[in-house]
Amino acid sequence: MRIARFSIDGNVAFGAVEAAEGTDGGEGDGVTAGHDGLVINIMKGIPFADFELSGTRVPLDKVRLLPPVLPNKVVAIGRNYADHAKELGHEVPTAPWAFFKPSTSVIGHGDPIVYPSFSQEVHHEAELAVVISRLCREVPRERVRDVILGYTCANDVTARDTQRTEKQWARAKGFDSSCPLGPWIETDLDPSDLAVTATVNGELRQAGRTAQMINSIEDLIVNITEAMTLLPGDVLLTGTPAGVGPIRPGDEVSVTVEGIGTLTNKVVARS
Question: pLDDT per residue over 170-179, tens digit each?
Answer without folding.
Answer: 999 999 999 9
